[in-house]
Amino acid sequence: METAHPHEPERLDLSSMEIDPHVVRLVPREMAQRFRLVAVGQEDDALILAMEDPLDVIATDTIAANTGYEVTPRRADAEDITSAIDKYYSDTIDIEQSIQSIVDVEVADGSGGNLDPEQLSIDPDDAPVIRLVNLILLQAMEERASDIHIEPREKTLAVRLRVDGVLREILPPPKRMQWAITSRIKILAGLDIAERRLPQDGSCRVRIMRRAIDIRISTIPVLYGEKVVMRLLDRSNLKTDLEDLGFDRSSLGMIHNAIAQPHGMILLTGPTGSGKTTTLYSALTKINSPDKNIMTVEDPVEYELAGINQVSARPTIGLDFAAALRSFLRQDPDVILVGEIRDLETASIAIKAAQTGHLVFSTLHTNNATSSIDRLLNMGVEPYLICTSLNLVIAQRLVRKICTECREPYEPDPALVARFRRAMPDEGDVTFYHGAGCDECSGTGYKGRLAVYELFPITREVKNLVLLGELGTRVRDQALEDGMQTLLISGMGKVKEGVTTLDEVLSVAMESDRVSKPPSGP
């Protein structure tokens, strides 16, 4: 009977293995074909290669030098390797080609100039570093990530992507390449690669797969090096049509009426990352026309809007929201957007603008729509000013959508169903759905996000309560009597439609406001 040599590499059966395509693409297609091999996994800092000839030292040394990984060779059948190469490289972009696809890197340092990508490498011999950073960007784009986190740990370098609001780890680069990767990213953003003791912020613009991507980059020193976060802003994904954002017909009518007013204030509330900017941009796009002078001050400008004058706040040189607003009032504006009302000075100027013939949009950080009045009063704004300037408040949250490829009916936990019934007591039989998990959604059961909303119109009854000093619960009860739909009810409506799950809605909406009270009066 034939026995294996004690030093012979382990044999892999590729036909029965599921391989991560991103691992495969760590090795360029040309090298995989030339040396008859496929990258199939990672073990510590080593890349596992399935090879026709695992004793080919030239092949393993070449792959190690090209990828920056140690190499662990394994034996596999030639036919299986050929099939794997055909399968995993057929619909993908080769890493070498990806380097050429990232062009026009623009450092946002005020110079406005473009840098030659050939001059951006840390060292002429450091092509693997460039390739790894490009691969991370490509994977982030393919998976619709909004943020990339590169986190140094004691023995590893973790990379996490935020997809649909949730962070998850991907295949990490070797720990020994930590400084080189961080430096490469700093160079793209025009940051100081020698300064590792202080936080730094920068930005750049790249083009990936013919899509223009703005990247905001932040670094901060942590225990084992520098943590890097890259926020990806894909212009092609920006929705600027209110009808596409998830509002029902009644809510759309209320918003259209508010933004059609010649003056007054419209506020959006919600935590960071809840889609407030997208909703504001959509509203501005709806009313944008050649006969209107629209001006915005943001920190920073996230997307460029054609025909709108946008200013990036720079507090370090004195250009904060309040200073920009004061200048705007001398620029003959029709519509003003201020990124956030953070203090009494900004609130006072914004309210003055809303009372003197301007339509003003802004944001606040509050838990719900009605709390915005309490927040303004706590800042020191007089009640009568709120009543004469505020038209509409919108609170919003983002929930993940069920993946349409693996959507299926299911029976939720009875406790969750009971919470649905408390919120929607008049609903009959409802079929609940979730995502079973598939390749399209990376096994999560979710793909994409949508917003749930709470619209709070400032009615005459609400104004009377504010002027009388009634706040908090009393104002909210009145809003519910006026027919306000809460975040919870909005979300449960999406559950009923089968586009999201009970878990998602209950993770962002409180149950304290279970139902909208019927409007009072005839």
DSSP E strands, number: 20
Distance from N terminus to C terminus (CA atoms, Å) equals 94 Å
* Mean pLDDT over the residues: 84
Percent helix = 25-40%
The count of helical stretches stands at 18
Question: Tell me about the biggest sheet?
Answer: 7 strands, mixed
Radius of gyration (Å): 27 Å
Percent of sequence in beta strands: 15-25%
Mass-distribution shape: globular
Structural class label: alpha/beta
The parts where pLDDT drops under 50 for at least 5 residues are 1-5, 92-126, 514-522
Order the strands across the largest sheet as they lie in space: 14-13-15-16-12-17-20
Description:
38% of the residues are buried. A hairpin with a 4-residue loop joins strand 6 and strand 7. Helix content is 33%, strand content 25%. The radius of gyration is 27 Å and the shape is globular. The N terminus and C terminus are likely disordered. Helix 5 crosses helix 6. The strands form 5 sheets. The protein has a 7-stranded mixed β-sheet, with helices on both faces. A 6-stranded antiparallel β-sheet has the order 8-7-6-11-10-9, covered by helices on one side. A 3-stranded mixed β-sheet has the order 1-2-3. It has 522 residues and is of the alpha/beta class.
Describe the structure concisely:
The chain is α/β, with parallel strands linked by helices. It has helices at residues 21-24, 29-35, 57-67, 78-89, 95-101, 127-142, 178-189, 249-259, 276-287, 321-328, 344-355, 371-379, 383-389, 414-423, 460-467, 473-481, 487-497, 502-508; strands spanning 37-43, 46-51, 70-75, 105-106, 114-115, 145-152, 157-163, 166-170, 200-208, 211-222, 225-234, 264-269, 294-298, 309-312, 335-338, 359-364, 390-402, 407-409, 433-435, 446-457. Helix content is 33%, strand content 25%.
